[in-house]
Design brief:
Elements lengths: L4 H6 L7 E4 L3 E5 L9 E5 L11 H22 L3 E5 L14 E7 L16 H16 L1
Antiparallel strand pairs: 1-2, 2-3, 3-5, 4-5
Amino acid sequence: MTPSVFSRIVAREIPAAIVHEDEHTIAFMDAGQVNPGHVIVATRRQVETILDLDDELAGAVFRTAARVARAVQAAFAPQGITVLQANHAAGWQTVPHFHLHVLPRHEGDGVELVWPRKDPGLPALHALAERIREADRA
């Protein structure tokens, strides 16, 4: 796998404003700040998507994200915080390295996410849930 830009930050080949790092994760300011305080939380080891995380690494990333979110709240007092994670191009992933965006939010900040609700009904939801349970057992 070609080293991602985030792997290069971990290796200190590319400069970054690092907020936090530990054995499993690194958190740094997003160079393309959507709002002041926008932080990327990434795995130190390059794995591409959430599908590639083991339980230990998944827990570590979300612990770091919660820690960073609390610090962002204290430092910037945003009206809200969005934590966003994307997988593969169809899911909006642009860097092939697992990461979360911790994004401070304010009313009218221009950040949008279109969520076209489908409302399939409870019987269809039960059928979809069963497919997931079956896949989880496999």
